[in-house]
Amino acid sequence: MTLTELKYIVAVAREKHFGKAAEACFVTQPTLSVAVKKLEEELDVKLFERNANEISLTPLGEDVVRQAQVVLEQANLIRDIAKRGKDPLSGPLRLGIIYTIGPYLLPDLVRQNMAQTPQMPLILQENFTAKLLDMLRSGDIDCAILAEPFQDTGLATAPLYDEPFWAAVPSTHALAEAESVDPDMLRSENMLLLGSGHCFRDHVLEVCPEFARYSSHSDGIRKSFEGSSLETIKHMVAAGMGVTLVPALSVPPEKLEAHAAGKPLPKPRKPLRSDQDHTDASFIRYVPLHGDVPSRRVVLAWRRSFTRYEAIAALRNEVYACRLVGVQRLT
Q1: Distance (Å, rounded) from C-alpha 289 to C-alpha 275?
Q2: What is the mean pLDDT of the chain?
Q3: Residue 275: pLDDT above 80?
Q4: Whether 113 contacts 241, CB under 8 Å
Q5: Of 237, 245, 243, which Cα lies nearest the Cα of 293?
Q6: What span, in angstroms and rounded, lies between the C-alpha atoms of 311 and 118?
Q7: How far apart are CA 315 and CA 89, in angstroms?
Q8: At residue 106, does pLDDT exceed 70?
Q9: What is the pTM of this model?
Q10: Residue 57 has pLDDT above 80, yes or no
């Protein structure tokens, strides 16, 4: 039994697919399959149920994989102890980040990292919350930037910032003229949402009970479109297909700064001509919400056994050094 074999079975359990697990481990599928079969023969147990559609763990396989995650974490702890004895800020830091934060925070964060701790380059992994939590448990990443809530009491967390939501509407929409809108004003609109698996979709439906209620009743939101990314959703808004909610960091900084300074937001454009490009970002009107403004809390999470405390502190300082317009920093 080797650590590599344990890593392979954890990857298969996470991906539920031998090909995807092999890709995640940077090996060929035959190499991974042979190693998994060898481990099953050595243990004389069947770890996985294999069928045409999916791979699932056997009851005994679940116990074995759970223990394998513990072993891998302990093995990584040995490496962390060795690194910390030399220099806790020396060597890469493997950072996970969810899709709805990465595009808006990472460019500035990477610049801050290169300026402040060039000896600690970030190895980045962008994924869904559930995937990143699995990768944290198995030691595939060291820490992750996530949005609460998420279910994992075994992790240490530190708050980074609270991020309010804004409405995004087509520039030709009636709400585009408003200085602010109440979430209830979106009741009769076509709501464009991220697809299942994106925690931001869940956040919108949880913190805006209207949307959850309307999406399941005929007198509410008439229909919805599910997109794969916030930027895709924005293009759909620009095309006039509906409205959506977006986190503040995805709003152009100049609009956030104008709002913070109490200045009127730029007026929307005139209606499109047929020969204009409707995907231009200027054809979206970002409108702040009023009343009980929905928001999300963004945190940094890591395993409690992770010993490079100075690396975590340095990363937090680099996040705080980012521009972060329109959010409330937390310490």
Answers
A1: 33
A2: 83
A3: no
A4: no
A5: 245
A6: 12
A7: 10
A8: yes
A9: 0.72
A10: yes
Q: Which alpha helices (DSSP H) does 96-251 contain, by range?
A: 102-116, 129-138, 199-207, 209-215, 230-238
The single-letter code of the amino acid at 277 is D
Task: Show the DSSP H helices in 230-308 as ranges.
Answer: 230-238, 253-260
Coil, helix or strand at residue 158: strand
Among 233, 206, 279, CA closest to 99: 233
What percentage of residues in the chain have a pLDDT greater than 70?
Answer: 83
Question: To 10 degrees, what angle do helices 59-86 and 3-15 make?
Answer: 120
Contacts of 304 (CB under 8 A, 6+ apart): 154, 155, 156
Instruction: Give the C-alpha separation, 17 to 81, whole Å.
Output: 33
Q: Is the peptide bond between 92 and the residue preceding it cis, with omega within 30 degrees of 0?
A: no
Show the tokens assigned to 292. 């009980």
- Report the candidate in 299, 282, 254 with the shortest Cα–Cα distance to residue 145: 299
pLDDT in tens, 133-186: 988 888 889 999 999 888 876 899 999 999 999 989 998 888 888 888 887 777
pLDDT at site 222? 41
Tokens of 94: 């493997």
Distance in angstroms (rounded) separating the CA atoms of residues 206 and 86: 45
Question: pLDDT at residue 319 above 90?
Answer: yes
Amino acid at 69: Q
Instruction: Please list, in sequence order, all residues whose beta carbon lies within 8 angstroms of the beta carbon of residue 106, skipping any fewer than 6 positions away.
Output: 97, 124
Weakest-pLDDT range from 14-23, 211-220, 234-243: 211-220
User: Is the distance from CB of 96 to CB of 141 less than 8 angstroms?
Assistant: yes
Distance between CA atoms of residues 137 and 296, nearest Å: 23
Beta bridge partners of 123: 94
Q: What is the mean pLDDT of residues 279-287?
A: 73
Q: Tell me the one-letter amino acid at 15.
A: E
By DSSP bridging, strand 48-50 and strand 55-57 are antiparallel
* Nearest alpha carbon to residue 84 among 116, 31, 120, 123: 120
79 pLDDT more than 80: no
